[in-house]
Design a protein that fits this description.
The structure holds 5 protein chains of 5 kinds. Chain A is about 75% helix and about 0% strand. Chain A is mainly α. The longest helix of chain A has about 30 residues, at about 145-180. Chain D is mostly helical. In chain D, about 75% of the residues lie in helices and about 5% in strands. The longest helix of chain D is centred in the middle third of the chain and has 32 residues, at about 160-190. Chain D is globular. The termini of chain D are far apart. Classes of the chains: A mainly alpha, B mainly alpha, C mainly alpha, D mainly alpha, E mainly alpha. At the B-C interface, helix 1, helix 2, helix 3, helix 4 and helix 5 of B face helix 1, helix 2 and helix 3 of C.
């Protein structure tokens, strides 16, 4: 029994958190958002801390649930990201009627992701995915009074329903073809028949939808732009990260018999993703939308690394997601603070931002540099290793395209930097107040960006996990 | 051809026909009704396959739950008599082509895959389902069960948070922030 | 005996009818209906596979059950969102919510 | 001596600048830091010579070799040879004078000095690195500060230029990256995965691999050193940059490329270098002549010097492409010389611009009578540029010419003659600019009231002039410094199988 | 006495002057600067005399031949394969002779400047530049290494630039300085390439080694150098001709002479030093230095002869029509250098045939004195009348008697009237030319007559012609100006008597310097006749010059416009190189090359704009793309790609 609790401790803690929040909700006395946020921060921090203790691998519920040191790390990363988002969401939540519901939904999606990661079975995978997805749609609608928010939620829920329809169809075909739903048993039954390949593509498309790989990405920009900034951050980091982790696991474990196929698939999709993400991003004026396309591009890089089919590739993907969490959250953190304070989100608005908010300007710049892969930020290392892993078999074309795309992507990141540092505006954004939780969050992100690359510990740890 | 076989084709025809009508009719209310029939048809198919439990669940949850939900929302959001607008011709043609291509592809793949019934007996009974549903070991579905419950809870919370009318929302919905 | 492929053909056809509906209907509620069709087709698949190919375990059946449950949750949230959209846009035509683009 | 000190110093300086309260302390910290760097670089040179004198013939001295990213076989490997030493001395000198020239920087001066220090950090790291990953890291590290320096403190179409520079340079580094990835794969196939220069050069990569990877690496580095036709960032970038950034950009940044080209071309992929030699030579010659001819038509002093940099950096590539010992030595000399000379030139142009607020040659005139010091500096830089003996430019160019002529054959001789022809064109544009801007009667009444150089500017110029004279009057010490490294390169080239 | 220190000190003293004055800058007064520089120069000059005395009379005389000896050398810039720039000091008859000439004329000029430049601004700079020039020139003549020669070659070019442009506020001076530098730079390109060719032919940069290897028919280098290379011409010919191009540029030979007349914008003492006595003869020196090589290569010698004789005649013709005193002198310089060059061209190595060599250098020697004298006199005159135009002068013989006398001596010397210095050298040259080629001789003879004509035209125009307008009495220059004039006049009178051939000859062995008096009759008579004509035409104002000019018509106008050489050059640079090469290059760079880079960026933007329809905002279209993507991927993976 203790073993059960210990193995599932992260899920159980999140569930506990959910219930605490539910009790508060049901107690009928509404808590002010600040207090609530404080409680959630503390509990999330405890959750995070607990995640680092008593890590051991194991199975539960037959093959339904499994955990390992790697999975524990992945969950911790997601917890951390959620905590960071939660920290800088305070200034937005303060004015929100449904702060508690926000946390309830947020944490239930987190739970869904944990279960997704730990799933040993296609059913659990599906349930986790839906638990992570459906409340997110509701969250996307959380700027309740804004047209765009509900449009975003609508687009998300319908796209997601369609994607899960295809995914389910794929799973059903896979089930029909192999007779098993267990991820561990799958490799033994796969024979790369056309039907299986089709099923695999359907499953992949369902996952590709979540990580917004081209051509399954079209919802991304609209939803990112319409949803509240905090939720967008969650979308782009936590939701995406969890599915990347899962995809990595299924590709490298369950679908290994199809490896030559998925190598091609990944390469194709990666190239498309890189090009499309970049080509759309260079035109964007809204920062959230820009970051949406940027996150699509980042996925392209992830896919390149993932196609490396080596432990280095796996480690690099994990490492990149780690870095991506810090970088993207730092960027979104700044944007959410500004958005909460002034409601301004376009590139035009950010002109001369540095003169009024130097610290935020630097954080934003560092985050963008990290996303662009400029040293000494961790993004440089992340990208380098991803592509190095991607070239593992000597396929230079994809790498060359990816490298070219690094240059294109640089353009729009630098456009933001240019607006922030170099251009001037008649009515610049005034001094933005930064509450201490947000400050802490941004400091953690910036620290993460600067340290994770230069210190090789994180990578080596991840490598030891995947080997 | 036995009656059993004939009934399959009959059910299938009804099911597909009503489904087709459900996605093409231009009356919203009728579409919902056609959908209802189609879902009942699916339930009939389950009966035909002798998995009555699923058929029952299908009827209870889908027919009793989801379709009703849909009907409610139809009433909430739309005058029922109105003709639904049609998508553009390009969209319809391209969608049709895509769907047909998908269908052909799937059919080819199914044909090639050589999936044939094994003829091994298929046992299920409520007891087995119940014990599996609450079991925690191999073939135990307690965990998914709990997960679904949480999911339903979350969905509930989400629905309430979003759909519940609040005074400020009422103020704002008439003057959307940007009319672009 | 009906060949399995015929059952699969039915489910596939249902699936693509749903897909067609999803791609062409303009009313959000009808879109939701199409989604339900798609999910139903998958359910048929699972049940059929379970019954005819892998009768030893009940994986397919359970999967179907969970899909039905989740379909309900999804529909609920979707309808909530649609209602909210209706409030803000005054319409549930999918073509009317195109503020976010390019 | 531990080479990490050389990286630690700029880092500490940067932190010091961050910690400093305001613009005045910031510039003091920056200056002190730069001074210490120069001292350290000189000390390093002394120790290096001592070690060599003591008979140490290992290719690299003072190595630091640590595993960095173990699973990927990426190492943190620093080492020093004559080539890198000379580049480091150059960097230290230019950094110090850059800081001095910007002494009166008013706007956002803390950031300014911080970025300048970052730039020097990148350069040091690049020159010291022996692992190609580390090297690449520092190469890219040095790009963004340039972008920021130009974009924030620049003039004219600064944002455009900054963007262009950043994109083209990082485009170059993307090419380099592809090359590195290829090297990584090739090294893995050879059984010793990694990007360590010392290991890679010993692997003897197969000719086909070399020929495949060489263009990526060479063009990639070439973009940094204004390889035709990828030089167009140079004029815009230099023209828009603030003085110190221009100095750094032309003085050091372009050398990163030359250094990289040499290391990669002649050291790592000698077979491919020989194979592609004619292409390199043609491109280099085009850059030399065409850069010089384009300079003729420039009306803006900074554009003029920028185009002349294209021309001069062509000599570096020419020297490398010739693959003879003398030519390579000449390329190195040219890198040092051009670094000093162009930094001095930009300093002088900056001083003139600060006072007259124009860089149009036609709008200037007769400045010699009101600002003799600045004008003298300008003339010295110009003379160095046109290869006047006694100044560093001559030693470098003549070495390149001698080395180039060493390659027998009408093609090589033709290329050399064309390259030589540029000295005439250079003389024309330098003297035209000097004649119009500095000599003649005063163009504007108001110029008569302008002041000559201040102490910081004098000091900065004096440092660079001293460097130019040191190289120009006594090039032998620099050649001796470079010798063991060029020996190594020659050994590699000599070991190649004969061309069939 | 000929130890390193003393000989090294000769160039180092002026260098010290340059450094001192350059660093002190404006903190010293002009007077102090002048005195300091003059003293240093005097020291150098004295040392040079001592060194020369030792060289010619002490150390070397015993061996019956003056062998070149490298007194000191050090590696300055080593190249690979035995090549390298060794900086050193070479002592041989030519260099020692040049040492004397340079230091001596430089000293005279320094002294003269004390008076002439008095009161000018930036005097320290002036003396510093003079010091730099003297140093460079000495370094040039002492060089044992081809690239060292090139180094100092460039440095004299620089000092010439600086001194021509000394009055930098005058646009004409700036333009002239620029022109001088660029034209000589162009020539230096030839020199440089020539050096490259020769150095790699002989595999050495050391002049001595090079000469040994390439003249030794047994050596492998000789064989390589004399086989045809590019365009069917031997490498040796290429090398020597190109080196000569460098020399021709510096020595203002046709067609690279156009800078010399303009260079007269500099202060007159500078013209005397640089553009009359020393730097402009560097070309002669260069050919003489490499003479053993030239002597085995007829093709290049022919080029030297042709260019020399043509330039001599051309310059003399132009000189007859000019009205600017300094320009006339400049063309005369060009003409005389032409003499020296064709004299070299007609010479061969060793023996009787080497007479041209000796004659050439002899002429160089004497010319240095009388031409610098002429310039200094001109300086004194300009100093007085504040104009360069001869029409502003006239009748000055009373007011400037000393100058008059000196000028007359110089004119006689240059005209080759015995017993003045020019007579001896010129006679030897004509003798040598006669022995070699009659056409060259004829050219020389005509030129000699023309020389006498235009010199005396000048003389009469300045000192006679019209009655003086200025009635302010005696205004001869200061003593510091007169003393150098006197000394130089004495030299011009006496220098011819030196048995030059005893000391300087092609192979180092004393050559018989005997003059054939009967042979000298023709040129002397011709010169005398020319002087008479000049006297008739210009002693008093007369209509004759005008009439003659009209009679000659086109020829006169062409000569007066310097045969349109300047216009030709301007045409080539301003109308061809700038608009047709430079501007297109700049245009191509901005529009094609850069346009390509910008075009890539623009194309990317464009594509981005095109494909934006994909993101139409219609969620169903998204689904369609999604589904289409799935189908396409499935198609590719299942049907297209079969691994």
């Amino acid at each position: 029994m203790t073993a059960f609790f210990l193995l599932m401790k992260q899920e159980l803690l999140v569930t506990l958190l959910l219930f605490i929040l539910l009790f508060i909700k049901l107690s009928g006395r509404p808590w002010p958002a600040g207090r609530l946020a404080g409680l959630v921060h503390i509990l999330l921090a405890i959750n995070l801390a607990a995640g680092f203790c008593w890590i051991r691998p194991g199975h539960l519920f037959g093959d339904m649930y499994q955990t390992s040191e790697l999975l524990a790390f992945e969950k911790n990363l997601l917890s951390l990201a959620t905590l960071l988002i939660s920290l800088f969401s305070v200034s937005w939540l303060k004015h929100h009627r449904h702060a508690l519901e926000f946390y309830l939904l947020l944490l239930s999606t987190l739970l869904g992701m944990f279960l997704l990661l730990s799933s040993g079975n296609l059913l659990m995978f599906y349930l986790g995915l839906e638990l992570a997805g459906i409340p997110l749609a509701a969250l996307a609608n959380f700027d309740l009074d804004r047209r765009r928010s509900s449009e975003a939620a609508m687009k998300y829920i319908f796209s997601s329903a369609f994607a899960s329809g295809l995914l389910l169809f794929g799973i059903s075909l896979l089930y029909g073809s192999t007779g098993t739903l267990s991820l561990a048993e799958l490799p033994g039954h796969l024979a790369a028949t056309p039907l299986e390949l089709f099923a695999f593509i359907l499953v992949f498309s369902g996952l590709g939808f979540k990580i917004s790989a081209v051509p399954f990405h079209l919802w991304t920009a609209d939803v990112y732009e319409g949803a509240p900034v905090v939720v967008t951050a969650y979308f782009s980091v936590v939701s995406k990260g969890s599915v990347v982790f899962f995809l990595l696991r299924v590709l490298y474990e369950s679908f290994m018999p199809l490896q030559s196929h998925w190598y091609l698939l990944l390469s194709l999709v990666a190239v498309l993703t890189l090009l499309t993400g970049n080509l759309f991003a260079i035109r964007q004026q809204n920062l959230k939308r820009l970051l949406a396309f940027s996150s699509i591009t980042q996925v392209g890089f992830i896919l390149v690394g993932m196609s490396g089919q080596s432990p280095e590739g796996q480690a690099s993907v994990l490492y990149f997601v780690l870095i991506y969490v810090f970088s993207n959250l730092a960027a979104f953190g700044v944007i959410s603070l500004v958005s909460a304070a002034t409601g301004r989100e376009t590139l035009e608005d950010y002109r001369g931002f540095y003169r009024t908010n130097p610290a935020l300007g630097w954080v934003l710049a560092i985050a963008l540099f990290s996303l662009a892969g400029i040293p000494p930020t961790a993004g440089f290392f992340g990208k380098f290793f991803l592509l190095l892993a991607g070239v593992g078999k000597g396929h230079y074309l994809v790498i060359a395209i990816a490298a070219l795309n690094m240059v294109i992507s640089l353009y729009y990141y630098l456009r933001v930097v240019r607006a922030v540092f170099m251009e001037s505006s008649l009515e610049p954004i005034g001094r933005v107040p930064v509450p201490w939780p947000a400050r802490l969050s941004l400091a953690l992100c910036t620290g993460g960006i600067l340290v994770t690359g230069l210190a090789s510990g994180a990578y080596q740890y991840l490598y030891s996990l995947v080997r | 051809m036995t009656a059993y076989q004939v009934s399959f084709y009959l059910i299938s025809a009804c099911l597909l026909g009503t489904a087709l009508l459900a996605v093409t009719t231009r009356n919203l209310f009728r579409a919902a009704i056609w959908l209802l029939f189609s879902l009942v048809g699916v339930a009939a198919l389950y009966f035909w396959m002798q998995v009555e439990f699923i058929a029952a669940v299908q009827i209870v949850v889908y027919v009793g739950g989801i379709v009703v939900l849909i009907l409610f929302s139809v009433f909430l959001t739309q005058q029922t008599g109105q003709q639904l607008p049609r998508a553009t011709r390009t969209r319809r043609i391209s969608s049709l082509l895509a769907a047909l291509a998908g269908l052909v592809l799937c059919w080819l793949l199914i044909r090639r895959s050589g999936l044939t019934a094994t003829g091994r007996p298929f046992h299920w009974d409520m007891h087995r389902i119940g014990s599996h549903m609450l079991g925690t070991g191999d073939q135990g579905y307690a965990l998914p069960f709990e997960v679904v419950s949480i999911l339903l809870l979350a969905a509930l919370v989400g629905c309430i948070a979003i759909a519940l009318k609040s005074p400020s929302a009422q103020d704002n919905n008439q003057n959307p922030e940007d009319p672009a | 005996m009906i060949p399995l492929s015929h059952i699969l053909a039915v489910s596939t056809a249902l699936f693509f009818i749903g897909v067609y509906g999803l791609l062409t209907r303009r009313n959000l509620i009808t879109l939701l209906m199409s989604v339900e069709l798609i999910l139903n087709s998958v359910n048929i698949n699972f049940v059929a596979f379970n019954k005819y190919l892998f009768p030893e375990r009940l994986d397919g059946l359970f999967f179907t059950l969970f899909i039905i449950a989740i379909a309900a949750a999804e529909a609920a949230v979707a309808i909530a969102i649609v209602i909210n959209l209706y409030r803000s846009h005054g319409s549930i035509d999918v073509e009317d919510s195109r503020d976010l683009k390019y | 001596m531990n080479l990490n000190w050389l990286l630690l110093f700029p880092l500490l300086t940067a932190l010091g600048i961050l910690a400093s309260g305001g613009p005045r302390p910031a510039r003091r910290v920056a200056c002190l830091g730069a001074l210490l760097q120069l001292a350290l670089a000189c000390l390093l040179a002394g120790l290096y010579l001592q070690q060599r004198h003591g008979g140490d013939t290992s290719p690299f001295l003072f190595e630091t070799n640590l595993s960095w990213y173990g699973p990927l076989h990426i190492r943190y490997h620093l080492g020093l040879d004559g080539i890198s030493l000379s580049m480091i001395l150059l960097t230290a000198l230019v950094t110090l004078s850059g800081v001095l020239v910007s002494w009166s920087q008013q706007e956002l001066s803390r950031e300014f000095f911080l970025l300048l220090t970052m730039l020097s950090l990148g350069a040091y790291g690049f020159f010291l690195s022996l692992d190609l990953f580390t090297q690449f890291f520092f190469l890219e590290l040095a790009v963004i500060p340039k972008f920021m320096l130009i974009g924030i403190w620049g003039s004219g179409r600064k944002e455009y230029s900054a963007m262009k520079l950043a994109l083209m340079l990082l485009g170059g580094s993307a090419l380099i990256f592809v090359g590195l990835a290829g090297l990584y794969v090739a090294s893995g196939q050879a059984g010793q995965p990694g990007l360590d220069l010392a290991t890679l050069q010993g692997l003897g990569l197969p000719a086909a691999t070399q020929r495949l990877l060489f263009p990526f690496l060479f063009v990639g580095f070439g973009i940094f050193t204004a390889l035709f036709p990828f030089h167009t960032w140079v004029p815009d970038g230099h023209a828009s940059a603030p003085t110190a950034a221009s100095m750094f950009l032309a003085g050091i940044s372009m050398k990163l490329g030359g250094y990289g080209c040499l290391r990669v071309a002649a050291f790592l992929l000698p077979e491919a270098a020989r194979y592609y030699s004619p292409v390199i030579l043609v491109l280099a010659t085009i850059a030399i002549l065409y850069g010089a001819l384009a300079t003729l038509m420039q009306t803006d002093l900074k554009y003029m010097n920028a185009y002349s940099s294209v021309s001069h950096c062509g000599f570096v590539l020419l020297g490398i492409g010739m693959l003879t010992r003398t030519a390579i030595t000449g390329a190195m000399l040219q890198m040092v010389s051009h670094g000093l000379m162009t930094a001095l030139f930009f300093a002088a142009i900056g001083m003139i611009y600060d006072r007259t607020h124009t860089r149009q040659v036609a709008a200037l005139g007769g400045l010699l009578s009101v600002m003799p010091f600045i004008s003298t500096v300008f003339v010295i830089a110009g003379l160095c540029s046109l290869g006047l003996p006694g100044l560093s430019g001559f030693a470098a160019e003549v070495t390149v010419f001698m080395g180039s002529w060493e390659r027998a054959g009408n093609f090589y001789h033709g290329v050399t003659v064309l390259a030589c022809a540029s000295i005439v064109v250079t003389a024309v544009y330098i003297l035209r600019a000097t004649g119009t801007a500095l000599l003649g009667p005063l163009r504007e009444e108001s110029y008569g009231r302008l002041a000559d150089a201040r102490w910081n500017e004098r000091l900065a110029s004096a440092l660079l002039v001293a460097g130019i004279l040191l190289v120009g009057l006594a090039p032998f010490w620099l050649v001796r410094l470079l010798d063991p490294a060029t020996d190594l390169i020659m050994q590699k080239l000599a070991a190649l199988p004969p061309v069939n | 006495m000929n130890d390193v220190t003393s000989i090294a000190l000769i160039p180092l003293l002026p260098l010290a002057g340059f450094l001192l004055l350059g660093l002190l800058g404006r903190s010293v007064s002009g007077r102090v600067a002048g005195v300091l520089a003059t003293l240093l120069m005097a020291g150098a000059s004295a040392l040079a005399l001592v060194v020369a005395w030792h060289y010619f009379f002490r150390d070397q005389a015993a061996g019956n031949a003056y062998l070149p000896q490298v007194i000191w050398q050090a590696s300055w810039l080593p190249f690979s394969g035995g090549l390298g720039i060794n900086v050193g000091i070479l002592a041989d008859p030519i260099s020692v002779m040049m040492l004397v000439v340079v230091t001596f004329v430089s000293l005279m000029v320094h002294v003269f400047s004390l008076g002439y430049m008095h009161g000018e601004e930036r005097l320290p700079a002036y003396y510093a530049f003079l010091g730099l020039f003297t140093f460079s020139m000495l370094g040039l003549v002492l060089s044992p290494n081809l690239l060292q020669t090139y180094i100092f070659w460039e440095l004299v070019g620089l000092s010439s630039y600086l001194l021509i442009g000394f009055y930098f506020q005058r646009p004409a001076a700036v333009a002239a300085a620029k022109k001088a530098f660029i034209v000589t730079r162009f020539a230096d390109l030839g020199f440089l390439v020539g050096i490259l060719i020769l150095a790699f032919c002989g595999n050495s940069l050391d002049i001595g080694t090079l000469l040994d290897r390439l003249t030794n028919t047994q050596a492998p280098q000789y064989a390589a150098a004399t086989t045809a290379s590019f365009a069917g011409i031997t490498a040796l010919t290429w090398g020597l001709t190109l080196v000569f191009v460098g020399g021709a540029g510096k020595s203002a030979m046709f067609p690279l002479h156009i800078w010399l007349p303009d260079a007269m914008e500099g202060p007159t003492p500078v013209s005397a030093l640089i553009h009359a006595a020393t730097m402009v003869v560097a070309g002669v020196y260069l050919v003489a230095r490499l003479f053993p090589l030239y002597s085995i290569n007829n093709a290049s010698l022919l080029v030297v002869t042709a260019v020399g004789s043509f330039s001599a005649l051309l310059a003399a013709l132009i000189a007859c029509t000019q009205t600017d005193i300094k320009r006339i002198l400049a063309y005369s310089t060009m003409s005389q250098i032409g003499y020296m060059l064709f004299s070299l061209g007609v010479a061969r190595y060793g023996g009787e045939q080497a007479a041209g060599f000796t004659a050439s250098l002899f002429h160089l020697f004497t010319h240095a004195f009388f031409k610098s004298l002429l310039f200094l006199c001109a300086g004194a005159i300009i100093h007085r009348v504040h104009s360069n135009e001869v029409k502003d002068m006239g009748g000055l013989r009373r007011r400037m008697p000393v100058t008059h006398l000196c000028f007359l001596v110089a004119c006689l010397a240059i005209s080759g009237i015995p017993p003045f210095a020019g007579f001896f050298s010129k006679e030897q040259i004509l003798h040598a030319a006669y022995a070699d080629h009659k056409l060259v001789y004829a050219t020389g003879l005509i030129t000699s007559g023309l020389t006498a004509f235009y010199m005396f035209r000048l003389y009469f125009l300045i000192f006679w012609n019209q009655p003086s307008r200025q009635e302010d009495g005696h205004r001869e220059g200061t003593l510091s100006m007169l003393v150098p004039l006197g000394i130089l006049a004495a030299c011009s009178l006496l220098a011819g008597l030196i048995p030059f051939g005893r000391f300087v000859s092609a192979d180092g062995r004393p050559a018989s310097g005997s003059s054939d008096w009967t042979f000298a009759l023709a040129p002397v008579l011709l010169a005398a006749a020319a002087i008479l004509v000049a006297e008739r035409m210009y002693r008093r104002p007369s209509p004759w010059p005008q009439r003659l000019a009209e009679r000659l018509g086109g020829l006169y106008r062409a000569a007066r416009r310097k045969f349109y050489m300047d216009e030709l050059y301007l045409f080539i640079t301003k109308r061809i190189i700038f608009p047709w090469i430079g501007r297109p290059a700049a245009w191509i760079d901005r529009n094609v090359v850069d346009g390509l880079m910008n075009g890539i960026a623009a194309a990317t933007q464009r594509i981005s704009y095109w494909i934006r329809a994909m993101q139409s905002g219609r969620v169903q279209q998204y689904a369609l793309f999604f589904f289409g993507g799935v189908l396409a991927l499935a198609w590719v993976l299942i049907y297209v790609w079969q691994n």
